[in-house]
Amino acid sequence: MKRAQGKTVIVTGGALGIGRSSCLLLAKEGAKVAVTDLREAEGREVVEEIEKAGGTAAFWRLDITKEPDVERVFREVREKFGSIDALVNNAGIAGVNKPTHEITVEEWRALMDVNVTGVFLCTKYAIGYLKEAGGGSIVNMSSIYGIIGAADLPPYHASKGAVRLMTKNDALIYAPDKIRVNSIHPGYIWTPLVAGLADGTPEGEAALKADLDSRHPIGHVGEPDDIGWGVVYLVSDESKFMTGAELVIDGGYTAR
Ligand code: NAP
Fold first, then answer.
1. Which of 93, 102, 208, 250 has the fewest CB atoms within 10 Å of its CB?
2. Closest Cα partner for 226 from 251, 192, 207?
3. Domains of the chain by start residue, with CATH
């Protein structure tokens, strides 16, 4: 029996990076995967890769900030696959990197809309289906920046702290419904989101990577699969006694 056999899992931001890895590993472990993202071409490539390997997946273009679209896509996933057993709230953006007093309210709200309101909306529309399935698992992608400060990315820190506590509160609300809610707190994982932090810097990507490598006691940044396997664990019944918890996968970043 594979680790996620028979479960239908919705992954947001599933086309790239951590979301992509989560989709591939969940499918390898027997899940039917609803790959959702803004990026249609990359999302469809993930589905093709899953199908080529003998797995089951389908793509939906979904902007998690649009309530009617979240409602419709989740309904279509339920219709196509017969149930929804887990939701991976992965989509997120880094937002502006300026000191707090230089950030506009529009920049603040744009970040919060994706990283916080998006998680709220997807959770809101998943709950009915998870209850219908007799229980399930919600995995919220927070960050080490939802636990500690780093003197950069102020809206991002605020959003990931919010996701950390939304996780614990929803874990309490939905425990009687056998719906588990946990957060994952990755250290730096080399993905398009992180590579993009070098945009416009004179030092460039290689210098950024070397700096980030040095910040992790284990000596390097992580790979998307390091987080994807955490997602598989939290979606699977192996974690059946775990809810409201923080799974920190950070190469020792927060151990200091
Ligand atoms: P990524 O490489 O940028 O991939 C994220 C995907 O989500 C992209 O395809 C992105 O599309 C999509 N997306 C953005 N806004 C969306 C929206 N409104 N609706 C639906 N999809 C949307 O990011 P990642 O590094 O894999 O990060 C995934 C998650 O892990 C994020 O929540 C991030 O905060 C968290 N995380 C990452 C790290 C890290 O070091 N990488 C560390 C801690 C936590 P576009 O590219 O078009 O925006």
1. 102
2. 251
3. 8-255 (3.40.50.720)
Residue-level pLDDT at 206: 95
Question: Could you tell me the distance, in angstroms and rounded to a whole number, from the CA of residue 34 to the centre of ligand 1?
Answer: 16
Percentage of the chain exceeding pLDDT 90: 99
Identify the active-site residue in 125, 145, 156, 233. 156
- DSSP class of residue 231? H
How would you class 88 by CB atoms within 10 Å of its CB: exposed for 0-12, middle for 13-18, buried for 19 or more?
Answer: buried
Amino acid at 42: E
